[in-house]
Amino acid sequence: MIHEYTVETLYHFTCGKCKGWWSHAHIPIMNEKNEVQLDGLKKLMYCPHCGEDGDVKIKKGFKGA
Description:
34% strand; two-stranded antiparallel sheet
């Protein structure tokens, strides 16, 4: 018996304008060595609450990076 799985990364965003928050799931890219690459996140996102477009950056002080 073999159990199969998938992998996804969950990003949590806070809007710089309205301060609303949302999450976005992203499936990592696998390279030719079958290693996970986490660099596929879009550089520009829009807030689903107020519609504001903006660049993204990791939160200051976040230790998971």
